[in-house]
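Reminder to self: tokens first, then the designed residues, so the page reads top to bottom the way the pipeline ran.
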């Protein structure tokens, strides 16, 4: 078989170029530290690496979401702590005002300080985060949630809690709607007036010195049976007769009297003893002082009420002049103290849920970090270079290239004329 000179030269050049290409590829691998430089190097491995990179990017986005959520929740926790401090101060002032030695003037001073604390509470309820969004406005994050109009604080947000994704299958609330945190909403867990189950209210024109307590629930089942037995709004009225020496209790449904079970055995013409517990249909309360003939007290199921309204009721009572009896202001403060205790407990419960979410964020962040490390390890096994093998291969390719170059130069020097004598 005849082999032309041009074929020999071309074959030598092809070998050198192939060796140079392989050496260059190995050099690039050593420079980048990656085994796969293009999808053609390992199609299957390239697809797997891309899938894992996508999951890493997604997990890092979840971590960024968690970081933003943590900042917002920590601000919420600090804000609620300040709300609790404000409520505690109002409680201290209420206890101080509930003293017989206070005068109309000193009570007005106390009411003035309470008003300043209340204004501060409204400001806290309108707290914004670093992005200028309101913490307690629900989805309406650009709308101021609480507005004071005519001495009343109204809620302008919605009932929704904002959420963020912290994993492919998990969402976390990064805020609470203000009407649930500060009350005045018919939603589960919302604040209610009175002791949270029922409210005790003296009649405005009571002439005696009777002061009713906020009361307690001694048999929740009996109370719920009584509430469920009416079609409308249940009310009990405690009325005093015989110069306040006896009392009777009647039940009403939307203003109409009820005499059927469980209301047919309510106390009637019972002797009254100041401070002695009065119990019926699962509830208990007492009345201290000396009620006058015809004085009346109403007991009804608790209704939603914001903590702002509860504080304002105390302020209004302290600003009203007291006549010969301090019973009206004492009744208002008793009710207010019970509602303040409920509000403090409610704020603490909300803070506890915020703390639980912060713990959940921390746990999820640790889990995300572990997942990222595992994914990066897997990608490294697929895509990264084995330096020991690559260096050995690089040295071998260098030798091969040198051999190809030297053999080419030897072949290139061959000439038929060297053998003609």
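Designed residues (421 positions):
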């Amino acid at each position: 078989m005849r082999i032309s000179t041009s074929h020999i030269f071309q074959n030598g050049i092809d070998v050198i170029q192939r060796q140079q290409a392989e050496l260059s590829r190995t050099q690039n691998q050593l420079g980048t530290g990656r085994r796969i430089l293009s999808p053609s190097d390992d199609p299957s491995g390239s697809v797997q690496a891309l899938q894992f990179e996508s999951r890493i990017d997604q997990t890092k986005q979840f971590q960024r979401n968690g970081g933003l959520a943590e900042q917002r929740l920590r601000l919420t926790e600090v804000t609620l702590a300040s709300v609790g401090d404000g409520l505690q101060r109002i409680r201290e002032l209420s206890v101080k005002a509930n003293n017989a030695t206070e005068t109309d003037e000193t009570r007005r001073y106390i009411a003035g300080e309470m008003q300043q604390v209340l204004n501060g509470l409204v400001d806290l309820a309108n707290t914004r985060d670093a992005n200028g969004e309101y913490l307690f406005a629900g989805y309406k994050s650009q709308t101021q949630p609480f507005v004071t109009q005519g001495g009343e604080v109204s809620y302008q947000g919605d009932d929704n809690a904002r959420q963020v994704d912290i994993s492919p299958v998990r969402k976390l609330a990064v805020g609470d709607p203000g009407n649930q945190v500060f009350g005045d909403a018919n939603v589960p867990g919302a604040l209610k007036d009175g002791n949270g189950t029922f409210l005790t209210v003296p009649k405005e024109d009571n002439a005696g010195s009777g002061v009713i307590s906020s009361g307690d629930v001694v048999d929740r089942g009996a109370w719920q049976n009584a509430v469920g037995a009416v079609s409308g709004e249940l009310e009990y009225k405690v009325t005093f007769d015989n110069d306040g020496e006896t009392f009777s209790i009647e039940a009403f449904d939307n203003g109409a009297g009820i005499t059927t079970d469980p209301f047919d055995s309510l106390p009637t013409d019972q002797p009254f003893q100041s401070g002695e517990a009065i119990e019926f249909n699962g509830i208990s309360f007492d009345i201290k002082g000396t009620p006058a003939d015809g004085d009346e007290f109403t007991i009804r199921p608790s209704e939603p009420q914001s903590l702002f309204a509860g504080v304002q009721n105390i302020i209004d009572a302290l600003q009203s002049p007291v006549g010969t009896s301090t019973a009206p202001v004492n009744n208002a403060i008793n009710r207010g103290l019970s509602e303040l205790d409920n509000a403090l407990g409610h704020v603490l419960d909300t803070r506890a849920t915020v703390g639980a979410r912060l713990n959940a964020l921390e746990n999820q962040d640790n889990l995300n970090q572990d997942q990222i490390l595992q994914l990066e390890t897997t990608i490294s096994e697929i895509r990264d270079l084995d330096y020991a093998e690559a260096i050995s291969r690089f040295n071998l390719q260098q030798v091969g290239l040198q051999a190809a170059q030297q053999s080419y130069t030897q072949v290139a020097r061959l000439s038929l004329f060297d053998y003609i004598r």
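The chain has two domains: 34-192+304-384, 197-301.
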